[in-house]
Specification:
single chain, 825 residues, alpha+beta, Jelly Rolls, Immunoglobulin-like, TIM Barrel, 19 helices, hydrolase activity, beta-mannosidase, Ig-like_fold, GH, hydrolase
Length: 825
């Protein structure tokens, strides 16, 4: 008897990047002068990229981010653009493998793909990749690859007619095609309506079998852990043979053979000892290398071991939305994330790292990827794993009703399956959410009448997405929307699940945040202008005023400037000059969000977290962001950092009285003597209250304030101090107070990687902040919004500048405080 030997090792897989030699040309639509004359022939193109960037590099268009160039360049989205490149193949390369796949990681958006003149694909989804078998269309020698994009504006308009119009917040029917919603513009975003090969493209050649999907799950078990891998393979047209697949996790290996008649298998390895992964502020972030191998076809992952769920068990007060990691409740200190550039192909790993490190330095522990943007690249989620930043991933549906009919239905399922499988292994991934505000819109925004029986997306949120996650990533929690009430109450009911609070910005004063007792706030925010340097780099208005032409173009919110003014006037008078207006609006933004965060946190554990709208901007604009479109930190980021510090002391109103809340978000007890004083603005202590407090780990302690009412509310405050942490309560808004003129002295000394700037206050200084970009465009400062009593000092660390003098910092447009807005008004 002769044994049959089966060779289960597939031939090598080869990949060839197709990133060079591209051109782009206008292929349809009206080209306005003077652009038409410059586009009579094709121009060089970069892939990955989009046509706006190609036109910009060629000198054909000005920077879309500057002045009113947005409207000047609106024609680009109305034009069909054709990308083309040529690549050579030898006869040996053609016959070396039985399969040749053209792989696009991303196409933006509606396009026909041709190879050597033959149509090989019709595509219409920015949010997914495409793998196209092109072996019958390849030839020896030159091969011409063409991607003909249809105008996204015209494509969306056409599809909205086919599917039927559905409610949306803006004129463009962004909800009719699967393209980033904010590409059509938002209330903080430029309208770009891009076209292009926006992610990588390559030719992959293989024979026999390839690794099509590897879904990895890491689960702690006792002191050890288990890694499971679900594998799907694809076979070519040759006779199938058994395929050997291996799983290696931290040096422990398992192997299986997938029979010739099958295309799926599972592998498991057990590790005797693993260290748990924790969100930042709660522990370390150990990650373990995992590989799934099919011959030379290897999928690599990094995983962390942790348990995670959201507690939504009803209680006496309603329904919590409490994150629990490794059996520990985690107070969520979150922020919403939008695409960090209106042209996302420009965002590389270094850019992600800078932004996410800024978030971590601001004491944040969760990033919510908003549903009107994109599924971010692997670099984003990898960095969140490494930094301990939890991620909350919306499916890409925002503020609109969506058709459930074809062709949208099939595209939605394809993108959901691909992206769930792609990112579900990440330790940082804490939640998938079906949409942003669509459940709320259906209930409260007159959608039911406007839809008149048409579908609006419910199938996706309540059926499709749960099914996809159940099949591909059952370990990842899911919520049908944000806001959402787990018990079936109104989706924005603040007593149940998550809520969004926007009435403060739209109609009410920010002090009314304290009228709410939400279980979890997934969105709220306040506007403010970008850094002064960002404004002056992006705008050439002369004079620049709050309502000058460029400022209005870079203010996208409806009645945005009017809301800024209305929201300021209760606290400060509205300055007449531009520089003080700019500072006042930045300060008011910071005070609004800081007040809200301190209030929400004081309600913990009843309130289980808050997610600020928003961390970042995609271009230079007046918006809700804490980091502006050129990456500069606004005072708002200091407010977030202060409110989310691991240990805080705040003073909060309660039933007509005041209370001190000591918040301890550390693993150690925080005990000591709490000192509460009523003081005059000149520093004189008028009354003192002492209390011994002991805040256990991850808890808070409340102490009622037992002090007399102020004799003169305009010049008195309460100060509460414990172990170096302090909170203040002012009895009046600054505009009605007796804040003195800012009197400070400045000392600057060199320090590691920068300079220490010590500011000494001769009198009370409220919300002292360095607008350090006024000294050097790339400079950064580590702290801000510091209130100093007479004689006190604070040291700021300034980086990103090679020289710094005290006279630079002491300039009144650099060394800022609320005092300046009271004494100069």
């Amino acid at each position: 008897m002769t044994d049959t030997i089966i060779n289960t090792a597939p031939p090598a897989l080869t990949g060839r990047a197709l990133s060079t030699g591209w051109t782009v040309r206008a292929a349809g639509g009206k080209l306005p002068q003077p652009f038409a004359a410059r586009l009579e022939a094709a121009i060089p193109a970069e892939v990955p990229g989009v046509v706006h960037l190609d036109l910009l590099r060629a000198g054909i268009i000005p920077d879309p981010y500057l002045d009113d160039n947005e409207s000047l360049l609106a024609w680009i989205g109305l034009v069909d653009w054709t990308y083309e490149t040529v690549f050579d193949l030898t006869a040996l390369e053609l016959v070396a493998h039985s399969r040749h796949d053209l792989v696009f990681d991303g196409l933006d958006t509606v396009a026909t793909v041709l190879l050597n003149g033959a149509t090989v694909a019709e595509v219409a989804n920015q949010h997914r990749s495409y793998r196209i078998d092109v072996r019958r269309h390849l030839q020896v020698g030159a091969n011409v690859l063409t991607v003909a994009f249809r105008s996204p504006v015209r494509a969306a308009d056409t599809q909205s007619v086919v599917l039927g119009a559905r409610p949306r917040p803006y004129p463009s029917p962004f909800n009719s095609i699967r393209k980033s919603a904010c590409s059509f513009g938002w209330d903080w975003g430029i309208s770009t309506t891009t076209s292009g090969v926006w992610r990588a493209v390559r030719l992959e050649s293989w024979s026999g079998v390839r690794l099509a999907e590897a879904r990895v799950v890491a689960t702690p078990e006792g002191t050890g852990g288990r890694v499971d891998a679900a594998v799907r393979i694809e076979r070519d047209d040759t006779d199938p043979f058994p395929a050997s697949v291996s799983l290696d996790a931290a040096g422990v290996r398992a192997d299986i053979t997938i029979p010739a008649e099958a295309d799926q298998g599972t592998l498991t390895v057990a590790l005797d000892k693993v260290d748990l992964w924790w969100p930042t502020g709660h522990g370390a972030q150990p990650l373990y290398d995992v590989t799934v191998s099919l011959g030379e076809d290897v999928a690599r992952r990094r995983v962390g071991f942790r348990t995670l769920h959201w507690n939504t068990a009803p209680d006496a007060s309603g329904t919590p939305f409490e994150l629990v990691v490794n059996d520990r409740p985690i107070y969520v200190k979150g922020v919403n994330w939008i695409p960090d550039d209106a042209f996302p192909s420009r965002i590389d790993r270094a850019r992600y790292a800078q932004r996410l490190e800024q978030a971590k330095a601001a004491n944040l522990n969760l990033i919510r990827v908003w549903g009107g943007g994109i599924y971010e690249t692997d670099d984003f989620y990898d960095l969140c794993d490494e930094l301990g930043l939890l991620t909350w991933q919306d499916f890409l549906f925002a503020c609109a009703a969506y058709s459930e009919e074809e062709p949208l239905r099939g595209e939605v399922e394809a993108e959901a399956r691909e992206n769930v499988a792609r990112i579900a292994h990440h330790a940082s991934l804490a939640l998938f959410t079906g949409n942003n505000e669509n459940l709320w819109g259906y209930e409260d925004w007159n959608w039911k009448a406007l839809l008149d029986g048409k579908t609006w997306g419910a199938y996706y949120y309540y059926e499709l997405f749960p099914a996809v996650i159940g099949a591909l990533a059952p370990q990842v929690p899911y919520a049908p929307g944000s806001p959402f009430s787990p018990g079936g109450q109104h989706p924005a009911d603040e007593l149940h699940g998550t809520t969004h609070l926007w009435e403060q910005w739209n109609r009410l004063d920010w002090a009314t945040y304290r009228d709410h007792r939400p279980r979890f706030v997934a969105e709220f925010g306040w506007q403010g202008p970008p850094a002064w340097t960002t404004l002056t780099q992006a705008l050439s208005d002369d004079p620049m005023t709050p309502d000058s032409p460029g400022m209005i173009v870079h203010q996208k919110a409806i009645d945005g400037n009017a809301k800024l003014a209305t929201g300021l006037v209760a606290h400060y008078r509205i300055p007449d000059d531009m520089e003080n207006w700019h500072w006042a609006m930045q300060l008011n933004q910071a005070n609004a969000v800081g007040t809200a965060l301190s209030w929400f946190r004081s309600l913990a554990p009843y309130n289980a977290g808050a997610v600020v709208w928003q961390l970042n901007d995609c271009w230079p604009v007046t918006s809700w962001a804490a980091i502006d479109g050129y990456g500069r930190e606004k005072p708002l980021l200091h407010a977030i950092r202060n409110a989310f510090a691991s240990r805080v002391v705040t003073i909060q109103p309660s039933d007509g009285a005041l209370r001190v809340v000591v918040g301890n978000d550390t693993d150690a007890s925080w005990a000591g003597q709490l000192t509460i004083t009523r003081r005059s603005y000149d520093g004189l202590v008028l009354e003192t209250q002492m209390a011994v407090v002991d805040a256990s780990p991850r808890s808070s302690v409340t102490v009622p304030v037992d002090l007399a009412a102020p004799v003169d509310a305009s010049c008195e405050l309460i100060v509460a101090e414990l172990g170096g942490a302090r909170g203040e309560w002012f009895f009046t808004d600054p505009r009605d107070s007796a804040l003195p003129a800012q009197q400070t002295a400045v000392v600057v000394v060199p320090a590691a990687e920068g300079f220490d700037v010590t500011v000494v206050a001769d009198g009370l200084v409220r919300d002292l902040t360095l607008l350090i970009d006024r000294v050097a465009p790339d400079a950064r400062v580590d702290s801000g919004l510091v209130t100093l009593l007479p004689g006190e000092s604070h040291t700021f660390r300034v980086t990103g500048v090679e020289e710094l003098a005290a006279t630079d910092v002491a300039r009144p447009e650099v060394l800022r405080s609320g005092n300046q807005l009271v004494t100069t008004a």
